[in-house]
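Record type: ASSEMBLY
Status: queued
Input:
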Amino acid sequence: MSDGKYFAKSKSVELRAELEQALKKSKPQPRIKIVLRKVIANIILNNNELANLMPEITNLLTIDDLEIRKLCFHYFTNYAHINPQGATEALPIFARFKDDVSPVVRALTLRTISSISNKDYVDLTVHAVRVGLKDSDPHVRKTAAYAVSRLYQHDPKKTEAQGLIDDLNELLYDKTQVVVSNALASLSYVTEHSKALSLTIDKAHSMALISHLSTTNEWCQIYILNSLMSYVPQTSEEALDLIDATIPSLQHENSSVVLNAIKVIVYYSHYVRNPELVMPTLPNRLGTSLVSLLAKPSEIQFLVLRNVILLLLGNKDLVHFDVEMFFCRYDDPIYVKDTKLEIIYLLANEQNVLVVLKELEEYATEVDVSMARKAIRAFGNLAVKLDNAADECVSVICDLISNGISYIVQESAIVLKNILRKYPGRFNFAVNEITKHYKVIDEPDAKTAMIWILGQYCEKIEKSEQILEDLISNFKDDPIEVQYATLTAATKLYLKIPEKGEKLVLQVLKWATEEVDNPDIRDRGFIYWRLLSSEDASGQNGVFQENTKQIILMPTPLISADNDNIDPKILEELELNIGTLASIYLKPVDHVFRLAKRKQLVNSPALQRKAPRPITSSSARDSTPEVTHSPQVNQNPTYGTFSPSDNLHQKHDSGRSSRNSNLSRKKSFDSSASSNEEGGSRKNSFAKMLSKKASQLAQGRKGSKS
Amino acid sequence: MASQIHFLDIKGKPLLSRDYKGDIPSNTIEKFPLLLLDLENSMDEGDFKPLINHQGINYVFINHNNLYLCALTRKNENIMAIIVFLSKLIEVLTQYFKSLEEESIRDNFVIIYELLDEMMDYGVPQTTDTKILKEYITQDYYKLIRSTPSHLVQPPNAVTNAVSWRKDGIVYKKNEAFLDVVESINMLINASGQVLNSEILGEVKIKSHLSGMPDLRLGLNDKGIFSSTSDMEEGAAEQPSNAKGIEMEDIKFHQCVRLSKFENERIITFIPPDGEFTLMSYRLSSAQFLMKPLILVNCKTKTHKHSRIEILCSVRAQIKKKSTANNVEVIIPIPDDADTPKFTPEYGTVKWIPEKSCVIWKLKTFPGGKQFHMRAELGLPAVIDNDDILSKKPIKVNFSIPYFTTSGIQVRYLRINEPKLQYQSYPWVRYITQSGDDYTIRTK
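Status: finished
Output:
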């Protein structure tokens, strides 16, 4: 028998009649259930008219049958807000149910009434929850824990004022572990949304929680692991103990448990000096447990890979990977391939560069265009990043160019520009190679790069003026960045080879100043024109355009891959968010989630503040160059839209960050004070959360501000 | 965590929705089809991902049998947990309804609502274990039609029990436990026969038919991976440079295994769930086990443009002489427009599968150490539009080798102890090595 046949829009009148029919029978239950199924089907069909059926459904609640009640409860959660009048009339029945003998009914009732945001229901729930939290059945206590969260969502003030959060706090001492971990999950929701409350846990309790890890189910483990982030270790030994205790969770079969365990370990490792030296096997353990998740479905792979990037950007000494593990498979979806490519780039160093280049070459000749482009871009970035790989990279790029395939040539042009800037004069042969194929170039980025190359190397290129003329023939329709490049290149050409460039430069300047609407282009045009025609252009000695040359032909500043640091503050926050959405977007949390609470490492004597990057890297093993991204190298940096670099480093709002650091000091002072003071009494030593004191302090601060 | 969970059809039309928190308007999901379309259009730029962010709402989704399962959230939630939950949801529903598709969702919407209520509370995953769910949410509703007074129904104590994966009072006449050690080999080999990367993905599966609450203890051979890891850890402390000697990587256990006991004493102890489950999986990046491919394929293709393509292929089983590989399949890609195949295999059969553009060479049994050759010739159309697009599809190989594990892992003992019942029990063990999803040889 199937329920599919109940899918039809019904009117409340019809269903009411059917119900009346059913109730006339001596055994009405089967008929009633069928009607109720129709009702539920109509909920799916978004039929709000059925809210009129509320009185009849209220009546049905009195029938002692679990299935009927379940269906009725479902009806109420969906329609109570549409028919508040009717819902209020059902209140007495719910009030009776909350003290039912059956724990199942009690739990269901709690869940239902807490989901309804009417004021009357909130009042009822407050009382029901208070009793429910102390219920004899763990199932009910667990449901009550979430009911507190729901209440908090409806009416935070009342929930706090009624002391429900303190009651919920008491559940952390519950003897059933499932209840404890669900209480933690519920509390973390409340604290995430409250400004004044925060979760603090002491060492004894965090160790106790860890010991629960092995016996609870997978989801409970996640909540426990998450709550471990609320404990601030005071000494390195403590942090090491906690890391030790968390390591077994790396072997769980649920990927989310693994990732959360990694988050916890990374967090605690901030409180240990050189964790990778103290625990030499740790980098391998972390690395392999991540890699083994790559055998999962591609969505999970993707999430893991994004987090691998995050770890590599922030903490690359703490994790160890073999680059071979990230080689793309033929049937990986494109988003996985992208991310793998990015990781390959990050992992490339002097030792493995040969393997990496071979692999990249494989991708560059792939049928998939976007993959091939990204591989070429990776070649370019690698050449800039690793000095001794540059020769190899450039020769591969030249090989690829020689095929003359349009998209390869275009991408190569962009990449070559960067390489030429990094190693001026070293790869002039590549310039000749690319100019052979200039005809296929038509994309703005590639064109800009090509024009720049032509301007810069015009004296070394045969017939450069003809090529340039060809490229810029529809100057007026070109996008603005191409126009800029054209102006500069034409001027350079004229300065270097006046006899060939004169006609062209006049033409371009005329276009720019007379026919282009954009004021910036016109201004630039006028500036060049004035410079070239100025009386002082040729200097005192009368050398042709000497002063102008000094201005325009100045050597460009060298670019390099490692002069860019991602704001450590942002990285730090992202690391505390491993496995969450922010780790996938790799953007500062408050860019994506405006209302999110800011997370940061809380100060403690053991906290290891990272020194600025260059120093750590020089002390790190061998002389592997810094692995960072290179946004300057590229106008549209690295691959894909999720590229971390452009999002991560643009935020340097100094005023704001200093304010934050002040705040953090204040906060940590509060927490340490409360944990020291209350260390004495037995119960307090066992996780005193949301200590009243802390919240009073916070409120006091608020009060003084206003 | 998740505010809403939706089941949608392939076009993104909602089939069934459950709102857990009420902090997102219920019509938000109606935007999903459009967003999906946008996403597919931008796929060329590599923008296709399992999540969309639109106007502050995150759509996290996975695809299954022409269905989308989508979770919505506004906040910076634990996305890994959400995705794992969605895939477990598919698993559970599949076990309930045999197959999960549009029709089975409509046919079972009431039970799905009930399951959704039990599996998640306030958007937080609760339990995803089918065996436990089945205890109190039964599929056979029409059995329940005689009325059940609600005070007779108790929540199963397994949900809140310390051992949440096994109920009390299981009885079998004959107490048996079947162990399967399965190793899947993934290998990436380049055109010249060099191994680029390789890994062994091992699994120990157990089918338990045991009464009561048995406590099991699994012993694996000394020579195997377990002792070597502990050696490695001790050695590593003194000589980090040696740590790379054996690359045992990552064992993952079913939730029933006592992880801390394993961590400290290297003993695997557990109370098994009833029926079939995967006790542990492990991964070996197999440089030290797999120097050379188990099944080596050497394939030369010669394309005579506009007329025909010639394939010369040889396979060699580089395994012990007394072992045999079964059901070896070599899948060789060919151009889409090839036709009129002619095959001359030395052994086995060759088939042309035009819809997948490949030929499959099947060898039923393949004794170790042997080598076989095959020649194939296919016609190509005289007129081709663009012949320079190189298809770089790799050759794929499937095989299975019974009574053999590549890593050398072996079960020494499986001790079964039920403190109350003290029955006699019989453990059975099987080994098999097979090709993984990704045993491929690149072509030039």
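Annotation: Chain A touches chain B through 128 residues (CB under 8 Å).
Annotation: Residues 422 and 558 of chain A are 6 Å apart (CA to CA).
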